[in-house]
Design goal:
Elements lengths: L5 E5 L6 E5 L2 H9 L1 H14 L4 H6 L4 E7 L3 E2 L5 E9 L5 E6 L6 E6 L2 E4 L10 E5 L4 E8 L2 E4 L2 E4 L3 E9 L3 E10 L11
Parallel strand pairs: 4-14
Antiparallel strand pairs: 1-2, 3-5, 5-10, 6-9, 7-8, 7-13, 11-12, 13-14
Length: about 190
Amino acid sequence: SARKGYSMWQDRRGTGIVARYGTPAMTKQLARNVPRTIAAVVFALLVGCGTACVAIFGAEDLELTLDVSSTTVRPDAPITVTVTATNTSDEAIVWGQGSSSCQLDAVVAVGTDLFRIDIRVCTEDLAPQGLDPGEERVEEWSWNGEILVQGTLDTLPPGDYRIGATAGTLARSNLKTIAFEPISAASVQQP
């Protein structure tokens, strides 16, 4: 059940509840602004908005950053993706419920579509996803250009793409441009 002062709604995966401190009037205002917020998110991911993305989601106390080990990725040369979330407030922030080991996600924009790139092994528990006051969480994984398309792994076509990290629906990170290249002829071993 919701505690007084918390607004609750279903997370983007439909698997849990997102709680954010606020008044009932704020909750109603958020519900009225959902279509506008979704449009702003898609626009921001496509054109880039840096740290201004956090303000769009109303989670100014949740800092989310994305770092990559290289700006070029190939199937035979994966990069390391690092997502860091920091709660700068004096209150707990909860953005979802799901795996306790994989609380942060990352997506790539392909045209106007967004696809998950955080393809990794996660615990199958159901835990609140969030941070206590002043807490920081870092998640890191390897990525080789594969994306999740309707439950199936697919490989990006060669080109430049923008990727960003997410903490449920509360925050989006800075965006990074990544070049995806096919396996080079020099790296393919001849029999």
